[in-house]
Protein 1
Amino acid sequence: MKEVYKDEGGITGRTHSGGVGDVALQDFGVHFDVHYAIGRLLENVTQDTSGVVTAHTRHTATATGVTWDDGDEYVLYLEATKNAVISSTEVCRMSGFAYPRDELGPDGIHPRHADRDRKVMDGERRRK
């Protein structure tokens, strides 16, 4: 079984609190410097536009090609593209535990479990 975790936005459900036609998003409820916004995708949900953040202050963020009207809803993503894969896991065929895909061997078994006996692994799963 494979699980994929996609970037659905680090900040969602917030709105612009500035004027009409602003080039910088303004939200006094968010500290963009804390979120390291530069290089992340900023989407104006209301106007269906988006761009990568090129500058920010504590309460404003500017993204190329995006303007803002008072009340526009926005999403600030964790990555530079919408729905980017943040991480994925797959289940080890020997243990049944989930690991990042790059940690599993070509046979789908994590090296930690490769040399273990199947009976031992089944017993460990039952105890948890």
Protein 2
Amino acid sequence: MQKPPTKAQLRAELEAAVDTYLAHGGKIERVDRGISGRDDHQQLQQPLFTEPKASRTQVNDLIARIESRRRPSRPPAKKQTSDSRPRMKTLYDDFGEPIRKIWVDE
């Protein structure tokens, strides 16, 4: 697979092409800023919206039907009160092996 040319290589090729053009009698003219290269000097107008406005399909009913078919969500977990009992929790290492058990207040 051939690598694309680098920016330095492209600059060198462009500079060589300009030098060759000038060596064979070519002439470069300076053009003032804001001058167009078009002969008619008019703005190029491209139509942005050529098609009539299309009606959109409402999908609210479809989304409601899909949502109704989903499994009902789990009931919210009971909030633990401050007088809840501590429980034992197992700590695991990076490989999933149990290291030790500790008591946590949650």
